[in-house]
Write a structure and sequence with these properties.
about 625 residues; mainly alpha; two-stranded antiparallel sheet; about 65% helix; about 0% strand
Amino acid sequence: MAIYSHKEKERVTSITTTTTSSSSQTVSGKMGMACANPSCFFCIMKEPESSVRRVGIKNCFREIPLTDDQEHVLVLSGLFNIAMTQPDDPEFPSLGIFPCMASLINRAITDKDWLLKHQNVYIPYYAAHVIGSYTMNKVEFAEIAVESGVIPPLMELLRGKLTWVEQRVAVRALGHLASYERTFEAVADYEQELVELAMRLASTCLDMVFVKFVGVNDEKARLKYHGDLLTRGIGGKEMENRKAEEWASQLQCWCLHLLNCFAYKDRAINLICRQEFLKDLCQMWGGLVNHSSPSGVGLIRILCYHKPGRKSIAESKEVVESLCNLSRSSDDWQYMGIDCLLLLLRDQDTRYKVMETAILFLVDLVELRSLGGRSYVGEAITRTLLLDYNQTMSNLKNNKFAQRSLEETWVLKLEKKRRERMMSTEKVEEKRVLVSLIKQQGNQRCWLGEVEDAIVKYSEALDLCPSRLRKERIVLYSNRAQCHLLLGHPDSAIRDTTRALSLSTPPNSHRKSLWRRSQAYDMKGLAKESLMDCIMFINGCINSETNKRIKVPYFAARMISKQMEATWLFSAARSKISSTQHKKGQGSDDEDEGGNEEQDEMIRTMMENKIFKSGLSTIIEEPLIGKGGD
């Protein structure tokens, strides 16, 4: 490819940001000067004759990896935007874009001198992203990509031959290829290595991104091209950090998606079910920056569909407790936590390993009507808990509290419902009035500071209240929870607020219960659960406002601030760094975990080459309109 004129360079930004209905219309308008080079990619794209344009594009794809031109990065930037906005257009995949991208990645890995020239350091990122975008929706494109040999260079990127930024797009592309039946086996040729790499990267990527980028306070010490890719060359440090958090979460989630592809097919289950990795999965939730992915619990649920997976999960106390906490939260993935527990309880080989823990949580959810698009959730929980009732009660003989919880479920869902079935409307109204009087007595006791007596009154009212009076029972449970909070009993408060929220329509919508449970979770140090409830509480406050001025309660804003700090995606990494620095201050020679010497050497080389620290032109990383969340 020849050198472009100065005016062509000035116009290249419009090439990388323009989105049209077909790739042949990506460049609109005329360049400032005519180009004498017949191989100019941008001029070829303007060619009106389709057959001539296709031949020219095919030749360009063949020549780009073989030539050394400082303008290649501009071509790759344009291809990146076309692939992002038109991932289903068959033109480029049919003309050899995949062999071109694979060759460019290989060259970046094997030819360090070439990588460090011009702005070639951007090229492997763009190339891997192009592969991932074109294989995102079409299995036909995925087959062409595999036949073109894209997997080996993607594997090299995943191994960490460059940096975490390239690992992110490599695992994304491999995940797309692994998700199709017709291309899965080609990816599975690397099964053991690929699974182990994805597991390690999922467990360590947050620490790595913090150490390599977010935790680097000196902006001059950061790789400039990372900042350009993250913020499209127009952001400061704060924007870079925010985007890096999003990308780190995506890197982790795409690693988990790749593992899902294997676990779904009952492949590599024993590898994935290593106890240490299962514990790590419990902490992978994507944060608020990636709320659309189930993250760790999504993979745990897939493992629960397989017997070896259920066996390993049941043996991990941390995983079971994490699922239990999720099942009683207002997280979008609450239903997944419930699903996992029910799958474990329905398997006779794992039922009694998890029963003592699970029953204490699920018993509060037996009156859920719908959740996550599913109906009769509470009924499914009830049937599972009461399965082999006598045998279960016998196995729980050493845990009186669990026995009492199971017996309570039996009484509430069977005996009480049977008694109330023939209750007349007049009788129900009589009980409603009596329950209201007892509730008022409980309120009076609470106002007088007689909190324990108030609890007794609310309990009396709940025992008397018919099951069909759901609104009354919501208030009774929520008021009793407030009393438990005043006494410093967070577990009891969580139980009662969860029951109130299960009775509410839609589920998890009773504002007072959300706030009270948020406080209770805060008392227990469960920051994520507290944060989710507080967010739901604030959403309820906003939706209930009839005027235009939305007032967020000050106490809720303080709780949000506290829990967002505690659940920050890099909070654990920051703590590790602080601890490591403290040890070094005391003379410890411990090294950072999860280091990659080859990657570190590459970064040092880039930092030593001043071209990557300053003076780079802006490379626009993403179009304004994206697709697929990338």
